[in-house]
């Protein structure tokens, strides 16, 4: 390895470590992709496609996606997300419905990408794992799905 390449590699590693210290473990997502089937792999999908409408400003009848504890309440054998079984999970079905279907989510033709759908499928297939400890707040990311 050339000295310049070695220096650059060390500088990137130091920057990632400093970022993790300053910004917390969420910074790690910039250094390496999260494992398939992990909560870290689906958090951006949920925050980009669900939290805008199912977050703190939702209607009372809507399932909550405000934090990982609220999400945990939707996971179980007879709930919206059936661990290990995307094909039996209502949550997964409404995400993969065609845009013209009246209960498709998000509701205005802004369906998640095929890659995002596969991340959701892998997460549910892996048992829909959530991190242990204090609930993780879910924040809306990007443009709201209802926007044009």
Provide a compact summary of the structure.
With 148 residues, the chain is mainly alpha-helical.
Radius of gyration: 18 Å
Query: Could you describe the largest sheet, including whether it forms a barrel?
Result: none
**Average pLDDT reading:** 81
How would you sum up the global shape? globular
Helix and strand composition category: mainly alpha
Number of strands: 0
Beta fraction: under 5%
Number of domains: 2
Low-confidence stretches: 4-29
Ends distance? 49 Å
Order of helices and strands: HHHHHHH
What's the helical proportion of residues?
Answer: 40-55%
Name the assembly state: single chain
Tally of alpha and pi helices? 7
Structural overview:
The protein folds into two domains: 32 residues; 114 residues, no CATH class. Helices cover 43% and strands 0% of the residues. Helix 3 crosses helix 7. The chain is globular, with a radius of gyration of 18 Å.
Properties at a glance:
single chain; 148 residues; mainly alpha; 7 helices
Write the layout of secondary structure elements.
Layout: H1 3-23, H2 28-31, H3 39-49, H4 51-54, H5 68-72, H6 90-96, H7 114-125
Helix pairs in contact: 3-7
């Amino acid at each position: 390895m050339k000295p310049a390449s070695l220096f650059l590699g060390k500088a990137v590693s130091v920057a990632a470590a400093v970022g993790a210290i300053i910004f917390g473990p969420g910074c790690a997502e910039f250094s390496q992709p999260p494992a398939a089937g992990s909560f870290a792999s689906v958090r951006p999908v949920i925050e980009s496609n669900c939290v805008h409408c199912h977050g703190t400003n939702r209607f009372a009848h809507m399932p909550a996606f405000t934090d990982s504890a609220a999400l945990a309440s939707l996971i179980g054998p007879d709930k919206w997300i059936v661990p290990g079984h995307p094909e039996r999970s209502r949550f997964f079905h409404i995400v993969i419905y065609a845009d013209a279907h009246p209960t498709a989510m998000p509701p205005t033709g802004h369906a998640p990408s095929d890659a995002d759908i596969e991340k959701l499928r892998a997460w549910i297939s892996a048992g829909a794992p959530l991190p242990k400890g204090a609930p993780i707040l879910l924040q809306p990311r990007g443009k709201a799905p209802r926007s044009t």
